[in-house]
Amino acid sequence: MAKITLENLGHSYLPAPAAPADWALKEMTLEWQDGGAYALLGPSGCGKTTLLNIISGLLRPSRGRVLFDGRDVTALPPEERHIAQIFQFPVVYDTMTVFDNLAFPLRNRGLPEPEVRARVHEIAEMTDLSALLATRARGLTADGKQKISLGRGLVREDVNAILFDEPLTVIDPHLKFQLRSKLKELHHRVPKTMIYVTHDQTEALTFADTVVVMNMGEVVQTGTPEELFARPRHTFVGHFIGSPGMNVIPCTPENGRVLIGGEPFETANPPPSGGRPEGRFELGIRPEFLRIVPDGIPARLENVADAGRFRIADVTCLGHRLKLLAPEGQEIPADELKLAFDPAHSWLYRNGWLFEEGESP
Amino acid sequence: MNGKIVNQKAWFFVIPVLLLVSFNAIVPLMTVINYSVQETFGDNVFFWSGLTWFQEILRSERFHAALTRQAIFTGAILAIEVPLGVAIALAMPRKGIWVSVCLVLMALPLLIPWNVVGAMWNIFALPNIGLLGKGLNALGFDYNYTRQVGDAWFTLILMDVWHWTSLVVLLAYAGLVSIPDAYYQAARIDGASRWAVFRHIQLPKMRRVLTIAILLRFMDSFNIYTEPVVLTGGGPGNATTLLSIDLVKIALGQFDLGPAAAMSLIYFLIILALSWIFYAVMTRNEEQ
Description:
The structure holds 2 protein chains of 2 kinds.
Chain A: E1 4-11, E2 25-32, E3 37-41, H1 48-56, E4 63-68, E5 71-72, H2 78-81, E6 83-86, H3 98-108, H4 113-126, H5 142-154, E7 161-165, H6 173-189, E8 193-198, H7 201-207, E9 210-215, E10 218-223, H8 225-230, H9 235-240, E11 247-250, E12 252-254, E13 257-260, E14 263-265, E15 281-285, E16 290-293, E17 297-306, E18 310-317, E19 320-327, E20 336-341, E21 346-350, E22 353-354
Parallel strand pairs in A: 3-8, 3-9, 6-7, 7-8
Antiparallel strand pairs in A: 1-2, 1-4, 4-5, 9-10, 11-15, 12-13, 13-14, 15-21, 16-20, 17-18, 17-20, 18-19, 21-22
Chain B: H1 10-36, E1 38-40, E2 46-48, H2 52-59, H3 61-91, H4 98-111, H5 114-124, H6 131-138, H7 149-177, H8 181-189, H9 194-223, H10 226-231, H11 243-253, H12 257-287
Antiparallel strand pairs in B: 1-2
Helix pairs in contact in B: 1-12, 2-12, 3-7, 3-9, 4-7, 7-9, 9-12, 11-12
């Protein structure tokens, strides 16, 4: 068990990286608390897997250090870091039985056989594999194989952290939920640090206590699912998390307010009251916080999609296409309607990042 | 019927193949069977002789000797080519420009016609002018493959290894590159040794292709004729007279059609039986 610290970490797959685009991971400093359940969320190609492989030691970073409880492990290979990793495609040793598969990491480390047996039985019980111990691993279904991969990670008592690299990709949809609940349950029973890489926000938000959102090799925000929803630090987080994602509207800051098409709006983080700050400004508001009111800003209804518990209305307002969520029972007027923006959930962004007074652009 | 549709029209698609096969395989085989049970004194006059030729061949010491030489040859080249081929495949690069270079180099010996291989090695190994023969003698070895039995065998096996190890390499390599990176990564995380990676990941994944490789090398080496005949002509004496060379000597040298026909049938049945046993054993292990 250990606290994992990434210090000024950066990685490039090129021998001589120059431009920012050459870096698969831009410089970052991150801390993972011991025993936490983390999700690393981002679109394909954002550097999630690279980051995970650096933590496990499969990849050596181009710059920066990896610390486990303050000890520098940057140069150590995976087997010396006491890390377990579960991959996208289940890895099982075909010729072995389920038992031998689970025992493999222990036997490789020279544990005495009675201990191996006790440990394997304990883990098999946790992962619902007890009945299958004597069968060949090859014949199992994808979810069974993934449980074996997971079991091989859990079986070692000295494991510092368990890393998951999109582990549910090849699992049937109806089993995904089951396996995800299993993971959550296991995290309560075995309180080890778990880092779960995914591009699926549902998986990330249900599994993790803390979500790290990445985009283009950069960590854009770290926080609880609620924080990511309520106060996205970057318009990317607003887009990526939430369904549908945040509305982002170009705007001009002026005297503590912003103007969209000449219309003034209040934001939760107001621009300075004097002067004209530099940069590209946008107002972000989630569809949940746009409301249809009797008197407000005029808009035109374009389209309504029924998503079951609520409806998603597509409207044009001040020349921009916006989405809003209408809860069940709320009437959506045809064609012309009036909108209210909730100022407590309207955020001002400068060059994509949440605007904070006093910071330089 | 397992819910499968039975359509007798399918036979029309099979019949052309059946006709073709009967002309190029079944008809010639029938002629051989015909010869094997008859005696002739020329003039196209034949007498029924029953199983006499079969009994004669099976009891003949000459046949036993050729069969033993054949078994030693095939055993030796399998014992060398399969491990060597796997070792070379393991050592080959998986990425980068060197992959194509290695693959082309490996494929080269396979592209050379068999009689050319025999002729190449015949000259290459000549003790007075060949690079290999002269070189070995210059190093102090008393090497002469045309006179000494051991040298003839050494050259024969070396030639086959040179010619055919590539086949095992290419097949084993194909098996190796099909293993996803995640397997190696998982093995590193599980703390597996190099040997454990080979034993539990690489070997099982190569199993299918190796079965094919061994089967092909077994059949080809058991049938081998051209290369040894060009290299040593079966000599010195009868030292490298393998089954096929002996068969040709009986059939075309002595013109003993009856015994030759009986011998080719026995030869054919041995290959068929061994291939079948081998294949059955290899695939049964897989099912377990």
